[in-house]
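User: Hello, beginner here. Can you help me understand these amino acid letters and fold codes? It all follows right here:
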Amino acid sequence: MAAQSPQGGRGAGAGTVTGDAARTQYGPVQVRLTVSGGKITGAEAVQAPKGGQSDQVTADAVPKLNRAAVAAGSADIDAVSGATYTSAGYVKSLQSALDKAAAAAGPAAQESSGADSGSGGGGRSEGDAGQGTQVLTGDAAQTQYGPVQVRVTVSGGRITDVEALQAPKGGRSDQVTADAVPRLNRAAVAAGTADIDAVSGATYTSAGYTQSLQSALDRAGG
């Protein structure tokens, strides 16, 4: 996934990269990764909520999130119970770190992908066609609670990663999104298609997710 971050180590295929700080209700969360040979070998939170009850929540949640990130090798990790906001901020910063690592590894591949050649439909296809890998962004699906938009990584004709670029937020939607989206991401990778079950309690988000996912997969097929 990553070669060498601009901040990173000197060895080929190794380095560190720091994600953007993600703001949460209880304070910012910022993640720094160590990447070697294209794999996450270490993760740490350089910023996390602190003060009062947040100290205990952070002390419990962050080590679990760090281990999960290394084990998963992606930002597709479960929220820690009792630390929903910290988990959501961690995942957001983690994803931005992974995006930076990927950009550092292959900017030429992204520039030559034709992503800026005017797709007209709002979606994009990025990646190195020679390796059979595409990153495809689906159309934003409008739901009762806000838009849902999905980005899919397809390699060798298989879904290898999915993330939600947009999802309902604000009020109760924050909790629903934090719970539902990671499950939908895992289901999409496992199924390899948009034929996935809705998450209980997140019917509208699930329907929008499936719609955007299908539009992304349609671009992969086309």
Q: What stands out?
A: The chain has five helices and nine strands. Residues 138 and 184 are 15 Å apart (CA to CA).
